Amino acid sequence: MDNQELHKIAETVLIRSNLLMDVLPAADGPIFARAEGSIIWDTEGKPYLDFNSGQMCSALGHNNPRVIAAVQAGLETLTHASSVFYNVPQIRLAESLADTLDPPLSRSMFIQSGADSNEAAVLFARRATGRAGIGAFHLSFHGYTDVTRAMSFCAQKPGHGPPIADLYAIPTPYAYRSPLASDDEDWWKPLLELAFDVLDRQCTDNLAAVIAEPLISAGGVIELPKGYLGALQAKLHERGALLILDEAQTGLGKLGTMYAYQQEDVVPDILTLSKHFGGGIAISAMITSDDIEARATAGGLNFGHSHSSDPIGCIAGLASLEEIRASGLAQRAVEIGANWRARMLALQQRYELIGDVRGRGLIQGIELVRDRRTKEPARDEANQIFGVCLQEGLLFSVRGQHGNVIRFVPPFSTTDAQIDQAADILERAIRQVS
Ligand SMILES: Cc1ncc(COP(=O)(O)O)c(C=O)c1O
Predict the structure, then answer these.
(1) Residue 158, preceding bond cis, omega within 30 degrees?
(2) For the segment 153-210, what is each residue's pLDDT rounded down to a tens digit?
C-alpha cells in the first residue's frame, strides 16, 4: 500500500493531535515504515536523516542492536508483571542507575513517559515538603498530562481548560532575548531575585519545588547561564523547597556527561529521566534520595500505572545504560556537537537569517531573525526551511516561544559524513528561503 492510500485511511481513523498541524497539512507528511541508526525510511523507500531522533527517544540510533537483543530475550522471559510486587529487571535497573548517579540520589521509580515521571516528581516534592507550590520557567516544557501541561508554559494554547492551582511561572534566563542586558556574566542574578520575590508573595511558605530543564529544549534550545542552577537550588533550600531537574532531554549522555547536572555544581533533590532511556522503548524514571523518599512515602503513598516497572521497559533501560557506558556515547555527543556547532557558526557568517547559534552536545539550535538588530522572529522562514528540508530528506523540529528556533537532535549514531550531508541540505534550504 502506498503513502497516498495510507494517508486516506489515516485521515478517517486517527485522531489528529499532530504537533505540526499548523505547519504541514497532514496529507503532506511522510509515513514511516522502517529505520536504522540515524536514518528513517518512509513507505516509498525515501530515506530521511533523523536529526530529531524520532521524538528524541531514538538517540541511541533507531533499532539499537543491544536494546533489540535484550528486549527479544526479555519478551520470552517476563513481558509484564504486577507493579504491586518487585521484579528482577526492575531491581537490576535501579541498581545500575544508582551506579551512574551522584549521592544522595539513590532510589528510583519507573514509569512510562516523561510526563509521568514529572507527575511523580511533583507528587513526591509536595508530599516530602507538605507544601503545594511548584515553580517552572515561563518557557518550560514538561509534558502533556494535565499537571505537566499546566506547568509547560511554553506550550500554553487556548482551549485546554483552566490552568491548575499552585503552579507558578518564573522568568527564563534567556540571554538572547533578555529584558536585561546580558553581556555581564552575572546578568541573570536580578532575574533570579525577581523570580523569588514573586514566588515568595504568590505562595508564601508554601513552595514545594521548582522544576527545571538544565538546557531548555522545546522552549527554544536555551542554555542556562553558568551558576544559575546552583544559585536556584540554594534559594530553594533556604526556603525548605526542592530542586527537580527534568533531564528527559539532557540526561544519559546527550550533553557530553551522563547527566547535565554534572556540568554544574549541583545534585538535584529529584531527577527525572525519559526519552531515550529505553533506547526507543517507553520507560521513564523518577529518582530521589533516601531522605526525600522516606518523607514522601511516610503514611503510605499510592502512585503508579498498570505498566509501571514493566520488566520489558526495565530490560530496555538496562541495555540502553550499558550501551551509553560501554560505547562511550557521552564523548561521541561532545564530538557531534562540536562538529555541528562549527557548521552552524559558519552558516551564521554567511546568512543574516541566523541570529543566534546555541546548544551543547546532541541538542543544538539556531534562532532565525529577519533583522539581527531588532531580532524580529523569522517564524515563516523557519517553517519554510523545515518544509524544504523535509523534501530533501532531513528531519528536525521548529520550536521556541516565537516558533523561530530550529532544533537539531541527531542520534549518537550520526556519522561525520551524515553531519556534512545534513548541513549541506540545511544550507541549500536557508539559501532558497533567505
Ligand atoms: C523536558 C521534557 N520533559 C518532559 C517531556 C514529556 O515527555 P513525554 O512526552 O514522554 O511525556 C518532554 C517531551 O518532549 C520534554 O522535552
Answers:
(1) no
(2) 998 888 887 789 999 999 999 999 998 888 899 999 999 999 999 999 999 999 999 9
| CA-56 nearest atom, ligand 1 | 14
CA of 397 to the centre of ligand 1 (A): 14
The CATH number of 65-326, from 3.30.420.40, 3.40.640.10, 3.40.50.970, 3.40.50.1000, is 3.40.640.10
CA 176 from centre of chain: 21
Q: Which atom of ligand 1 is closest in space to residue 112's alpha carbon?
A: 10
Specify the pTM. 0.97
Helix axes 189-202, 228-238, angle to 10 degrees: 30
For domain 3-63+328-433, give the CATH superfamily. Aspartate Aminotransferase, domain 1 (3.90.1150.10)
What separation in Å is there between the alpha carbon of 346 and the centre of ligand 1? Answer: 31
- Ligand 1 atom nearest residue 218's Cα: 16
Strands 207-212 and 47-50: unpaired
Determine if ligand 1 sits within 6 Å of the CB of residue 152: no
